[in-house]
Design goal:
The protein has 425 residues and is of the alpha/beta class. It folds into 2 domains: 10-228 and 392-418, Aldehyde Dehydrogenase, Chain A, domain 1 (3-Layer(aba) Sandwich), CATH 3.40.605; 233-380, Aldehyde Dehydrogenase, Chain A, domain 2. Helices cover 40% and strands 18% of the residues. The chain has a 7-stranded parallel sheet with strand order 10-9-11-8-7-12-13, with helices on both faces. Strands 5-4-3-6 form a 4-stranded parallel sheet, with helices on both faces. The chain has a 3-stranded antiparallel sheet with strand order 1-2-16, with no helix packed on it. α2 packs across α7 (157-173), α10 packs across α11 and α13 (334-344) packs parallel to α14 (357-366). The relative contact order is 0.14. Bound molecules: NADPH dihydro-nicotinamide-adenine-dinucleotide phosphate and ligand VHF. Pathway: Amino-acid biosynthesis; L-proline biosynthesis; L-glutamate 5-semialdehyde from L-glutamate: step 2/2. One of its GO terms (biological process) is L-proline biosynthetic process. Keywords: Amino-acid biosynthesis, Cytoplasm, NADP, Oxidoreductase, Proline biosynthesis.
């Protein structure tokens, strides 16, 4: 039985994951789904143990002065545990990507060629103090036939250790190889460099966190990396926008969960819509006391509407506030909005609110972010919302995956070539 909390080196963990990954690649869908059912059930059956561990993390967080946003991210209760178990069940309902034929064709010489999905092998995830990621990531890895090595935030040490143990024990009891789910933690930040250099054993590392984590990995990683990094998201309101929709979309993108990477940080408004739109959105954001950091053109239009207003600095355009703070800038047209987004954005999630087909087309073509929205909130960039069950993280890079990293993104492919004594002349 796996004991994720016993002391082993990161290399031991990675080596054992490699062995598990090889066996897991051949496990059939029924067994993997049975393991996921066992995990979902165990989460609820072992809730008292999990919540007790979480209480220890919360106590430590309180003592060390974690912000209320971070405390909220860390906290578990019965309802949240039930949601985590539901996400596992959502993954069960998804089609197993392993063995799926992406394309198949017969060559003139009669050889049958099939491009087929196969698991990556071993995936490592480094993530923020959100304990649900432990289970979301484990569930996605199992279903896609990969062994997983987890490294959560030290603020969630106890919660993650118990969650990983519950998942590993349930998975093994349902017939999955030992060490399919493992966690490292407790050894400090140097574990990151150790994990990121296990290229003999680990096929992919996903750092899910801020720019500091990204920078720390860039210098050292020899394992292929997919960055699930910070989001500096934008909502652009065009002159042609339906302003009722624009108010709701801008409010939702900022306020619905300001700590998330897919929340908007800057509102860009076409010069011709500014006078009608800006006072309205300022009044709407007053309920939540969103601080507006407005440029010179926007300031007189948002002041006096009940929400705090300060002058924006250049630095604001590049900042991921993760709080109830929103940059506001008036732009000349859609092209100026695109320029702003391409200069200051992080390639995560950006939206246009418009009715004019030309403006929409320009935005769709000009903004290269992982998720581009037309008349919808940026908050939808989420594996669950996209029908992918859950997500390992939201990729902000171009290779090998973009946006939510779900089951298919945890696979690669191979060519399976079937012949009948064929030789090349
Ligand atoms: N694109 C995406 O999918 C997501 C992006 N994010 C982004 O994450 C950020 C917020 O999360 P936050 O809690 O601040 O995340 P952090 O980046 O601070 O921490 C994430 C993880 O990385 C570790 N870590 C951070 N910096 C280093 C370093 N220099 N060396 C080694 N390990 C490091 C942390 O360990 P420890 O805590 O132990 O120090 C933790 O396990 C925001 O920028 C948000 O946009 C968040 C979720 C999803
Ligand atoms: N999956 C998330 C997005 C990921 C995210 O930002 O997570 P976190 O930074 O831990 O709040 C959601 O929108 O629900």
């Amino acid at each position: 039985m796996a004991t994720p909390t016993e002391v082993r080196t990161v290399t031991d963990v990675a080596r054992q994951a490699r062995a598990a990954g090889r066996r897991l690649a051949a496990v059939d869908t029924r067994t993997k789904d049975a393991a996921l059912h066992a995990i979902a059930d165990a989460l609820q059956a072992r809730a008292p143990e999990i919540l007790e561990a979480n209480r220890r993390d919360l106590d430590n967080g309180r003592e060390s002065g974690l912000s209320s946003a971070l405390m909220d991210r860390l906290a578990l209760d019965d309802a949240r545990l039930a949601k985590i178990a539901d996400a596992v069940r959502d993954v069960i309902a998804l089609r197993d990507p392993v063995g799926e034929t992406i394309e198949g064709y017969r060559l003139p010489n009669g050889l049958d060629v099939a491009r087929q999905r196969i698991p990556l092998g071993v995936v490592a995830v480094v993530y923020e103090a959100r304990p649900n990621v432990t289970i979301d990531a484990a569930a996605l890895a199992i279903k896609s036939g990969n062994a997983i090595v987890l490294r959560g935030s030290s603020s969630a040490l106890h919660s993650n250790a118990v969650l990983a143990q519950v998942a590993a024990e349930a998975a093994e009891s349902a017939g999955l190889p030992e060490h399919s789910i493992q966690i490292v933690g407790g050894g400090g930040r140097e574990e990151l460099a150790e994990l990121a250099t296990q290229d003999r054993y680990i096929d992919l590392i996903v750092p899910r966190g801020g720019e500091g984590l990204k920078a720390a990995l860039k210098g050292v990683a020899t394992v292929p990396v997919i960055f699930a990094a910070a989001g500096v998201g934008h909502v652009y309101v065009d002159a042609s926008a339906d302003l009722d929709q624009a108010v709701e979309i801008a409010q939702n993108s900022k306020v619905q969960r300001p700590s998330a990477c897919n929340a908007a940080e800057t509102l860009l408004v076409h010069r011709d819509a500014a006078a009608a739109f800006l006072p309205r959105i300022a009044r709407r954001l007053a309920d939540d006391q969103v601080e507006l950091r407005a440029d010179e053109a926007a300031r007189p239009l948002v002041e006096g509407q009940g929400t705090p207003v300060v002058a924006a600095t250049e630095q604001d355009w590049d900042t991921e506030h993760l709080a109830l703070i929103l940059g506001v800038r008036v732009v000349d047209d859609v092209h100026a909005a695109i320029d702003h987004i391409e200069t200051h954005g992080s390639g995560h999630s950006d939206a246009i609110v418009a009715r004019d087909a030309g403006a929409i087309r320009a935005f769709e073509r000009g903004v290269g972010s992982a998720a581009v929205y037309v008349n919808a909130s940026t908050r939808f960039t989420d594996g669950g919302e996209f029908g992918m069950g859950a997500e390992i993280g939201i990729s902000t890079q171009k290779l090998h995956a973009r946006g939510p990293i779900g089951l298919r993104e945890l696979t690669t492919y191979r060519y399976l070539v079937r012949g009948d004594g064929h030789v090349r002349s």
